[in-house]
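Reopening this one. Same input as before:
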Amino acid sequence: MTSTPPEAAKGEPSTPVPEAAKGEPSTPVPEPPEILRFRKLFEEKKHSNIIWQEYSHLHDNSLSQHLTKPDYNRLRRALDSSRDWGIDGKILQSFEDMQKYRIAWDLKDYEEFVTIKFACGQHQDVIQLYSTHFERKGLTPWILNIMLAIYVKLDMVDDAKILLREALVKEVLPDLSIWEDFSKQYLTFSHEIVSVVRNMLVDAARQNTKAYNLYLTHLFFNERPDDALEYYQQNKAAGIQHDLSTYEILIDGFSKTYRPKSAFIMYQDVMAQGMQPTQKMYNMIINLKAGLLDAVGTEQTFRDMVRSGLVPDIYTYSTLLNLYFRNREVSRALAVFSEMQRDNAICINDVVCNIMINGLMMNHEPVAAQEFYKQMIHIGMQPDLITFNSLLKGFVYNKDMPAAINVIREMRAANIEPDVITVTILIDSLLSTTETKTAQSLFDAMQPYNLQPNVVMFGAMINGWVRLGNMTQAVQTFTMMRKHKVTPNVITYTSLIQGFVQSGQLAMATLTFRDMMQCDNVMPDRATFHFMIDGFLGHDRFEEAMVCFRRMRDMKLIPSKDTYFVLLTAVVTQERWKEGGEIMEQISEDGYEIRNLSLLRLYELSPWAKTPNLQTPFSSLHDATFTPIMYRLQRTAVAFRNITPVRPTAILRSRQPVRWASASHVAREGEKAAGEATHQFPVHEGLVYFDNMMPLRFSQFDVRQLLFQSTRNMLEKKAKSFAPKDAIPIEFEIAEVIPRLGIAFSRSRDGGAFLKFQYKALPTESKLIANEIASHISKNLRDRNVITTFNFQPVRAFLVRGEPFMEDLLARYPSQKLRIEFQGADLTIEQIYKEFRQFGRIFDVTQPNPASKELPRYAIVQYTRVRAATSARNCLHGITVNGTRLNITYERQIRTNAISQWIVSHPRISFPIIGFAAAGVTYAIFDPVRKFCITSKITQRFNPEEYAVYRWLRKETWARIVPSTARQAQLEEGEKDGTAAGGWSEREQDERMLRTWLKEQPETFILVTGPKGSGKSALVQSVIKDKRYKIIVNGEQLVNSGNNNDMIASLARQLGYFPVFTWLVSLSGLVDTLVSATTGQKAGISSSTETQVKQILETVAVAVHEVTISDESASTSTLALRRLKRLTSGKPRLKSDKNENGIEDENEIPVIVIDGFLAREKGPDHQELWENLAEWAALLVENRVAHVIFVTNHVGAIKVLGKALPDRTIEAITLSDASSDAAMRFVQRRLREVQLKRNLAGLDHAVAALGGRLTDLQLLVQKIRGGLDPDAALHDIVQRAIVEIRKYGFGDDIGPDAPGSKFRWTDVQFFQVMSALGRNEVASNPLKRGFYFHLYQSSHFPYNGL
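Same output, byte for byte:
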């Protein structure tokens, strides 16, 4: 019976029929409960038979009319998944019911309907449906393949060719990949039909460029580059012209299949035909030549590209950068980078920067890499974890540990936390140095990195010691781990046990194992048991090894192949046949199979195989062994090859039940099966991807793969065990295991491995058989429940349908997002979902904007787990779906910061807030530090001279070794003291007065004045030298500073104010200017020099006050101690123990000396400085915090101080020159040693001529000590004074434009005054007495200036 679709019967369009057309009422009617129960069966995933029974019940009761199209779709999916007999008829009945209730069909429904008709042999119905429907509605590639197969099968080849030409006219391209899928499913044994239709499709592809390109893409997708090259050469010999799109596919295909020579031939053909290669062609050729490290060829291709008028893009430049860095041509790489910077069309991104940093580190240029990193920061580019890891790796391998520490600090400053790979690299580098010889030294070396001690850190340390074979330090590290209260895990214990076993310390391994068993939260895994078994067997303790083996079985742990290997080897070596039987039974229970025929033969001849209690003798298993083998021969029609003995080792493979057979029996059965085979089939290759073989790698320094490292051999054994031959009813061979490593093993990221297998099948059935092999491997993994130890997740297997892209790009690491680029038409969301859902749950699919012209067009697929994304990328990259090739890369997730965006968008609000916050942070962080530094300056906390222990040690050591130097120092100190006070009787009274004032509480200023050189500073220093707390401010240094910033720095240095940021004044002014320019109003954050000076002085005042308070609080305990000493000693109380003001020790009152007050007043800044100092001193004195002594030679100082402290009387001391006798005694005491050696005639005359000025007398002493006699020294001093007088009085040696060259007096006025001074005639203002009135012309101005 011919079934006609509803659209074909009624002539209606193929759109869904409205609900009213289905016979339903216009008003909503509650659905019958039977319908709801029927739909619930799908949610409960009931068997298809139960679902069909329920549907038959609905159909019999006329309730199926309430079903919708989604209900019918789910019904057909459930029936199709069961694959039972009679399913096709049930599916056709569901289509007929849809037609009956006028439910519209879509294109997928038509294709499924026609396919089932074809499978049921109803070819005439399909032809009739095509003539009535598809000629009007259109044709699809799938329907085209069905029609071609029907025409060829019915010997209507001409009709098939006509149909093919019509399809080309209608732009329905023949797709060989779709044909192969169709033929594998429905034409398995119709080889002649498959061959004829395929040749027709290939010939049709030559007539259409799109079809031609589609066929080439199909060949490369199926990894048939040789067929593609042969097809191209045949067409070229036939005179077919190829366009650039064809050559682009050829070059791209040969590049991805690692055929660079063929790609170069295609490129040469393009150039020979005078065609202009595209940008993509040039980039692919450049990439191929760069991969071969062919710098000359790469540069030539690059020049050809530039000559053709194409502009190199960032991909081209990045390829050149990698090439030159790999060739150790740093200068040329830098030249390429400079060219990239000059090119305005190139935007330097983080990938390029990471290439530069890694390349420089690779070429041992850490300084250049660090400078590049600084420039990267300077231009505002944010470094990522890859950047920091590249820097860290380079510095560590270049042994620059301070720079490595700085990198980690900058990582934390950028809110990027170091990962576990960083920890492992640091530990490995520290272990390689000569300093880290112990566990404690290694732990101490980790402290500068500010890393949190945890189980990962200690585990890496223990693993490092184990690799070095230093178990002593490994044990110490384990003890240190316990002291830090870090709980060890199974990996920690297993590492220790492995180390002990490898070093032959079986007793320590046993103790560690017992300690592990006593832990509540740690249980041994099969790796732990394996090392224990290996250790016992290595010491010939087979019984203990079997105890471990049985304990392992009791804990439901399945031994690995390596464990069984060492056990079976020991059984054979020691002839432990009884225990061998137990091991063989466990092998059978665990699903392993022994493939080594020599070992099996040995067991057949062993005494254990001949024991009467053996339940399954070898001889009875021979026939049963080949039952599945013959089934596979009948199923696949592949000849069974001879099995030859392999090397005598125990090779274990996972399978269902274990079966043994002798080598001769296997050989006989193999020859028999090979003789029965009637066809020889070509060999095909396929790839299966295992997705959880290793930990994922999210950065260059991810340490997890080092903790769970696996060698290539281990991966091969593990991957081969996942694909046992006897568990798969299809004959195949494992060709190779390819870890997902990129270019080098150290660059593994995706954590998986590829298993390449070979099988024999017809070309039309190759994909079908590959799918069956992959599905059986996946089922075997699920049945065995293979779980990894590093994440306790199952291992999954997927058939690789694309072309895996093996790369080692530094910036591309696994992520949940995949970027799917379309080389062809865009895929719909249904197509994307269908292809990618099998790998895991999809969070979202983002399709390209239809209006966007950005190329290439791409979609974003975001998974819920990273493992699903890695599997999809490795299995589907390069796949062709409906003529569109998919290129899949990882998409980095970009997270925007709403806070930073708001700050940038609202500068009027954010800038003042940031300024106030910065000020608050500065106050909270730096002010306590500054107070501490000032307190240390006042108390001399870090001055060793203040500590009696140091003075005693110096006296008992250095002073005894060099006594003359010590005595000379004491003599010089005594001379200085005498200079200050003891030597001059005029100074004794002033000194006593000053000491008396300092013993009292601070009430007012103390002013010490006098002419320059009168010994003011020396007097003050001699008085305060015994004071505990003192600060000296040198005004001369402040006013002699070059600018305001230097003046602030000098003041802070003298007061102990640290840290000080002198650049804040300029920066705050600049920020205020920028804010006012952008927002129109000032931010109010600018500061001046006066503000910073006041801030410094206020902080010093607070620190001095705290020192005073702390001393007052400590005075109570000090006083009690002194009273206790007096009582025990019986001495009477002295009046000096406590002064009138209640202070125990007057030396505890801080003293602040401002020397050189009003030293210079040449600008408003200096005037403000002196006023600020005076006000600050007034604050200290008024609050009785400290004594303040002003030392100055300025006669107007008392006026300035009076303004600051108007209600107090200033206590002043005015110093004058010494008398003649005192001056003579001073000079003689200083020249005592010189007078013993030579005669100093004329000394009295020289001293009398100079007078009592201290500086002049000291200069005289220096010149006499230098070798001059007194008269010559006097003459030299006089000549120098003459030069100074002429310089400052008459302007000699001063240019006319120099500052100070314009005096307020004339030369005559200055000469008359100097003459009067020489005659001692001018004692006061001469104008008051009419003295030289005509010279000054009634003006005080010249006289005051003098």
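So the earlier flakiness isn't reproducible anymore. For the record, The longest strand covers residues 683-690.
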